[in-house]
Amino acid sequence: MLKQRIITAVILVLAFLAAVLWLPLRAQALVFGGVAALGAWEWAALSGWHRPFSRVVYTLLTIACFVTLWIVCQLDATPTREAVQPYIGSACLFWSATTLLVERYPASAVLWRSVVVRSLMGWLMMAATWLSVVYLLTLSYGAVLVILLILIVAVADIGAYFAGHAWGQHKLAPRVSPGKTWAGLWGGVACVLLLSFVVIYFRAAQFDHLAPASIVIVALVCAGASVLGDLTVSMVKRECGVKDSGSLLPGHGGVLDRIDSICGTAPVFALALMLIGY
Questions:
Q1: Other Cβ atoms closer than 10 A to 111
Q2: What is the largest CA-CA distance in the chain?
Q3: Which of the residues 9, 23, 104, 224 could staple to 27 if both were Cys, CB 3.0 to 4.6 A apart?
Q4: Cβ partners under 8 Å of residue 236, min gap 6
Q5: For residues 273 and 218, is the Cβ–Cβ distance under 8 A?
Q6: Which residues are CB-neighbours of 13 under 8 A, at least 6 positions away?
Q7: Domain tally, the chain
Q8: Domain span at residue 212?
Q9: Contact between residue 203 and residue 144 where contact means Cβ atoms under 8 Å apart
């Protein structure tokens, strides 16, 4: 099981780096759109659409959202911040609201238990994640920004894992994800803080106009968003009575199990860069 998990992880990392570093923007949009579409396929089942036909329709509608955003935001040209910010900002408001939903679970389930609400949640999550990643790729040093986004999520997860195993006694959200602890949360935040210091020290000339304090704040906010994305998907899975969102990735479960933290972090990261003047 561990060997299978490692092999899958290595393949995913290599595929991600190849897409980010060598593919043109349109191909990158297609690749990440495909990943998000697989996430939508899995979310369809979590929403209550269990028949294959219903899940296909849900996934196609999600792809239609991507195409619409591509056209409306003019991602194929040079998208302006004004064109993209309302959509990404709305996604960040959604993630802010889910903080209360997670904190109040299971009582909060009455607000989002219906198939319609869960379906809308999935569309917003997948569309906002895809838009955020593609928008980042259109910026100067776009590949570096997307790699940094994934590093923040990975470092937060690794720090939380080791700190949680070493000192985790107090549960963070026991009704949502019993394995997560406050020690894990602060361990992840500490590791992301360290990453932000590394970025400040080695930053390229393109980032010189960004204040070090701004970089630290962005990193810390994204660390929290990463945890929130994970907890939100865990909350929906718990309500549905499933452990994994799917089985597409050997040793890892479903695609959504791997991108849930990215879904929470990508819009926050993109909006934060806009606000600090990148």
A1: 12
A2: 52
A3: 23
A4: 46, 118, 121
A5: yes
A6: none
A7: 1
A8: 2-275
A9: no
Task: Compute CA 113 distance to the chain's CA centroid, rounded to the nearest angstrom.
Answer: 22
Q: How far is CA 126 from the centre of its chain?
A: 9
pLDDT mean values, one per 10 residues, the chain (278 residues): 73 91 95 96 94 96 97 89 93 94 93 95 96 95 93 94 88 90 94 93 73 92 95 94 82 85 96 89
Q: What is the Cα–Cα distance from 72 to 246, expressed in whole angstroms?
A: 32
Contact 175, 48 (CB under 8 A): no
> What is d(CA 143, CA 233) in angstroms, rounded to the nearest whole number?
27
Nearest of 35, 89, 90 to residue 273 by alpha carbon: 89
Q: CA geometry: angle at 10 spanning 7 and 13, to 5°?
A: 150
* pLDDT digit string, tens, across residues 176-212: 998 899 999 999 999 999 999 999 888 766 677 788 8
Q: Which amino acid is at 273?
A: L
**Residue whose structure tokens are 């190849």:** 18
> Whose CA is closest to 119, among 46, 37, 34?
46
Query: Quick check: 87 and 66 in contact, CB under 8 A?
Result: no
Give, for 200, the enclosing helix (H) or strand (E). helix 182-202
Task: For residue 247, give both structure tokens.
Answer: 């089985």
**What's the pLDDT tens digit per position in 28-60?**
999 999 999 999 999 999 999 999 999 999 999
